[in-house]
Write a structure and sequence with these properties.
Keywords: Cell shape, Cell wall biogenesis/degradation, Glycosyltransferase, Hydrolase, Peptidoglycan synthesis, Transferase
CATH architecture: Beta Barrel
Largest sheet: 8 strands, mixed
Radius of gyration: 12 Å
Structural class: mainly beta
Order of helices and strands: EEEEEEEEEHE
Mean pLDDT: 97
GO cellular component, one term: extracellular region
Number of strands: 10
Strand content: 35-45%
Pathway: Cell wall biogenesis; peptidoglycan biosynthesis
Strand order of the largest sheet: 3-2-1-10-5-6-7-9
CATH topology: L,D-transpeptidase catalytic domain-like
CATH class: Mainly Beta
GO molecular function: glycosyltransferase activity; peptidoglycan L,D-transpeptidase activity
Number of domains: 1
Domain L,D-TPase catalytic: 4-111
Distance between the termini: 29 Å
Shape: globular
């Protein structure tokens, strides 16, 4: 089976869901503000939660970097901005799609 993985590009503020060499989805995201930047490196999805509540929107994909995750938002106007506490924010409809297509252990690559 071909590996699925997530690539987050901080410069253009995008998240891509890959399956091998194929891009399954391309989504706009918000990232951490300068004082609380989104970490860079190779991580994994460590936990999945439906309806985590509050500012996290409809889904939470917690990363192997403690305290960081990919999640929905209750503030869709923030997508595309550098405004979070380091997490990756997505439109709820987008994070729901990604959530359904990844598993705990899915690799997440974050870079500039």
């Amino acid at each position: 089976m071909t590996e699925r993985y997530i690539v987050i590009r901080k410069g253009p503020r995008t998240l891509e869901l890959h399956e091998g060499n194929r891009v399954l989805g391309h989504y706009p995201v918000a990232i951490g503000k300068p004082s609380t930047p989104t970490p860079e490196g190779i991580f994994a999805v460590a936990v999945k939660r439906v309806h985590p509540g509050g500012v996290f929107g409809s889904r939470w994909l917690g990363l192997s970097a403690p305290g960081y995750g990919i999640h929905g938002t209750n503030n869709p106007a923030s997508i595309g901005q550098t405004v979070s506490m380091g997490c990756i924010r997505m439109h709820n409809r987008d994070v729901e799609r990604v959530f359904d297509l990844v598993q705990v252990g899915t690799r997440v690559i974050i870079y500039r």
